[in-house]
Amino acid sequence: MKAILALEDGTIFRGRSFGAAGTRCGEVVFNTSMAGYQEIITDPSYKGQIVAMTYPLIGNYGINPEDMESRRPFLEGFVVKEYSKVASNWRSHKTLADFLKENNIVGVEGIDTRALTLHIRSCGAMKAALSTNGEDEKTLVKKARESVGLVGVDLVKEVSAQKKYTWSGEKSKYKVAVLDCGVKYNILRELMNRDCQCVVLPARTSSQDILKLKPDGVLLSNGPGDPAALSYVIETTRQLIGKVPIFGICLGHQILALAMGGNTYKLKFGHHGANHPVKDLKTGRIAVTVQNHGFCADMESLNKKDIEITHMNLNDRTLEGMRHKKFPVFSVQFHPEASAGPHDANYLFGEFIKLMKKNR
Fold first, then answer.
1. Are residues 111 and 205 in the same domain?
2. Cα(248)–Cα(340) distance, rounded to whole angstroms?
3. How many domains does the chain divide into?
4. 250 is a catalytic site residue
5. Strand 165-167 relative to strand 196-202: parallel, antiparallel, unpaired?
6. What is the pLDDT of residues 142-201, one digit of tens each?
7. For residues 114 and 52, what is the distance between their CA atoms, to the nearest angstrom?
8. What angle do CA 348, 327, 351 make, to 5 degrees?
9. Please, are residues 79 and 113 in contact by the beta-carbon 8 Å criterion?
10. CB neighbour burial string for 76-90, b if at least 16 within 10 angstroms, e if fewer
11. CA R_g for the chain
12. Buried b (16+ CB within 10 A) or exposed e, 117-135
């Protein structure tokens, strides 16, 4: 079945469908990871986006139940150069095509992803329409232009847990309240492996209800979209600062920046992939990190009397980490839980454990 990807600037890419049928709109971005497509597809941070993979062959090891990063996929569409119809791996339970069809996700192959990536790098991430319905190009471009996009839109409400649940092992030394803005399961796994009981809470949970749990720490999770649209999470975070240790990851990092009086802005084409070099300014160590975000905390807007910059992106010199000089609060823009990707940064979970132990 023929498929079309129409960008809001009128650029058209043609391919073939291998997922669900239909038309979807979203911001089109590219991901530079060579593996881990299942984790990418099931990352809630991609809500509102159409993801194009720069690595040309996708689907060859299939899908398995162990590598899910959320309860279901939330992205709007998935674009690859070549889809592997054969899934060959001892862990595989189904093909990528079957998985996309089951979850009503439009998948398209045969698109020149190199040209698409270069266009996004040159012109920036933009709204797009992905369709297998045979609609004409002008109609799809119009739909792309009229779609809501990401700026100013609360997408967290679409992915957050609707009710509280617990994730823990047999023995738990620490209780962590996880404010779920779209948390990846491997964050919970990494905390559980460090003797933490994770109490996962809907994003609209108040600071009072969080503190009633008497947590040893609070984790502000990753998630989709524009952090400035999340006034309720920002206010909750502001009320928690100084009362309990806080660790922010990705969107959680941006929310902390806003809660501490800073600003955020939209990047030209975002950071999406598993090969982003980040420098720890304290140790000088370089970590290759996993990233997935289209917005960034504005380094210059932060109060340097209270906030120390801890990590820097070596590709574009953007802010990747910070900590509060007085309160037990720190955050990073990248994903220390990886899944999939390099594990260079998972030491940060140990730093969170130390912080909770120190402030008990």
1. no
2. 19
3. 2
4. yes
5. antiparallel
6. 999 999 999 999 999 999 999 999 998 778 999 999 999 999 999 999 999 999 999 999
7. 10
8. 15
9. yes
10. bbbbbbebbeebeee
11. 20
12. bebbeeeebbbbbbbbeee
Q: What is the pLDDT of residue 171?
A: 80
Which of 27, 39, 320, 337 is an active site residue? 337
* Active-site residue, 320 included: no
Q: Which of 146, 177, 202 is the last residue of a domain?
A: 146
Name the catalytic one among 76, 250, 271, 311.
250
Q: Which of 175, 186, 170 is nearest to 212 (CA)?
A: 175
Torsion of CA 332, 334, 337, 339, to 10 degrees: 170
Name residue 13's beta-bridge partners: 5
- Asked if residue 62 belongs to a domain, the reply is yes
Alpha helices in the chain (DSSP H): 37-41, 96-102, 113-123, 137-146, 156-159, 185-192, 207-212, 231-240, 251-259, 347-358
Integer Cα distance of 260 and 281 in angstroms: 21
Q: Are strands 264-280 and 307-313 parallel, antiparallel or unpaired?
A: antiparallel
Q: Are 77 and 107 in contact, with CB atoms under 8 Å apart?
A: yes
3-state secondary structure of 91: coil
How many other C-beta atoms can be found within 10 angstroms of the C-beta atom of residue 271?
A: 25
Domain termination residue (choose one: 90, 124, 146): 146
pLDDT at position 124:
96
Quote the domain boundaries for residue 332. Answer: 156-358
In a domain, 66, yes or no: yes
CATH number at 130 reads 3.50.30.20
**Residue 151, in any domain of the structure:** no
Ordered DSSP codes for 161-213: -SS-EEE--S--SEEEEEEESS--HHHHHHHHTTTEEEEEEETT--HHHHHHT
Mean pLDDT over each residue of the chain, to the nearest integer: 97
